[in-house]
Design brief:
It contains 13 helices and nine strands. By secondary structure, the protein is an alpha/beta fold. It folds into two domains: 166 residues, D-Maltodextrin-Binding Protein, domain 2; 99 residues, 3-Layer(aba) Sandwich (D-Maltodextrin-Binding Protein, domain 2), CATH 3.40.190. The longest helix has 22 residues.
Length: 324
């Protein structure tokens, strides 16, 4: 190689983006997924199943790092501040990603700016349930009962400002009813008091509550999907029960630090798409009463997240919901 060729190559290498040089053989070591919730919960279980399937595609292990606290904000901050090299991933859940920025007055990071969306690996409707002592068999009867007893119907949530809280405030707004919010430190104690009859209603992810409906310990009023759930086909949607605008889904997704190189993001997206359609993961979804995931492009998912951010921001502002 003559000096002219050597100099030209050196200049080209100097001008090349560092990310492109560093990521040529990505991934070449284990990855870490930050889960902003405790181990053993529904979100954690789904993350582990998805990352196991994704690990098989990438050829590298993906280690789960549980960082619970502050409604998911702690784990989100850890991930946002991580090195943007593709080796730190985040379980993105609807609450910390698009609801918490509106309900918390002070956050260490801005999820919409400091993290980049990759894709979905879980999405499903919520289900409104009541304790059997409530004399309502369907959504219209539930609304009528709440109107006849304003403020006397107590509903449980997993915490102020979270999905289970905001979803019920949206219902109250759409139906024109008044209910009393009883926040708990997590879904488990909220469900325990609902089963005991100390609170009368709750709206949570369908897989969380459906087993108790099937056992007769809770009564299903409506699901929040656009169509009935294949796992509870006998339960009507809120839309077909008189609230056409009450359609909402909880979701789980993959995010990375915002400055992660685009080629790395696309590698992760391709691996995620393969993982969520693999038999091990679809078997997990079926066992968890969760619908299969149809991959969408990274650009479509980014637009979806922005739409969710704007939608829930309006709900939070209209109901004046605060989490701190």
């Amino acid at each position: 190689m003559n000096r002219r060729h050597f100099t030209a190559m050196a200049l080209a290498l100097a001008a090349a983006p560092l990310g492109a040089l560093a990521q040529g053989n990505y991934p070449n070591k284990p990855l870490t997924m930050i889960v902003p919730y405790p181990a053993g919960g529904a979100a954690d279980n789904a993350a582990r199943a998805a990352m196991n399937a994704m690990s098989a595609v990438l050829g590298q292990p993906i280690v789960i790092d549980n960082r619970p606290g502050a409604g998911g904000n702690i784990g989100v901050a850890v991930a946002a501040n991580a090195k943007p090299d593709g080796y730190t991933l985040l379980l993105g859940h609807i609450s910390p990603m698009v609801i918490n920025p509106h309900t918390y007055s002070k956050l260490q990071v801005n999820p919409m700016k400091d993290l980049a969306p990759i894709g979905l690996f879980g999405s499903g409707p919520m289900i409104l349930v009541v304790h059997p002592s409530v004399p309502a068999k369907n959504l219209q009867e539930f609304i009528a009962y709440a109107k006849a007893h304003p403020g006397q119907l107590n509903y449980a949530s997993a915490g102020s400002g979270g999905t289970t809280h905001v979803a019920m405030e949206l219902l109250a707004s759409k139906a024109g009813i008044q209910m009393t919010h009883v926040p708990y430190k997590g879904g488990a104690p909220a469900l325990q008091d609902l089963l005991a009859g100390r609170v009368q209603a709750m709206n949570d992810a369908l897989p969380q509550l459906l087993p108790y409906v099937k056992e007769g310990k809770l009564r299903a009023i409506a699901v929040t999907g656009a169509q009935r759930s294949e796992f509870a086909p006998e339960v009507p949607t809120a839309a077909e029960s008189g609230l056409p605008d009450y359609v909402l889904y909880g979701w789980l997704s993959l995010f990375v630090p915002a400055q992660t190189p685009m080629d790395v993001r696309r590698t992760l997206k391709s691996a995620l798409d393969t993982a969520v359609t693999s038999k091990p993961f679809t078997d997990f979804l079926a066992s968890a009463s969760s619908p299969k995931i149809k991959p969408i492009s990274m650009e479509e998912f980014t637009r979806f997240v922005q739409q969710e951010y704007e939608r829930w921001g309006k709900v939070v502002r209209d109901a004046n919901i605060r989490a701190d």
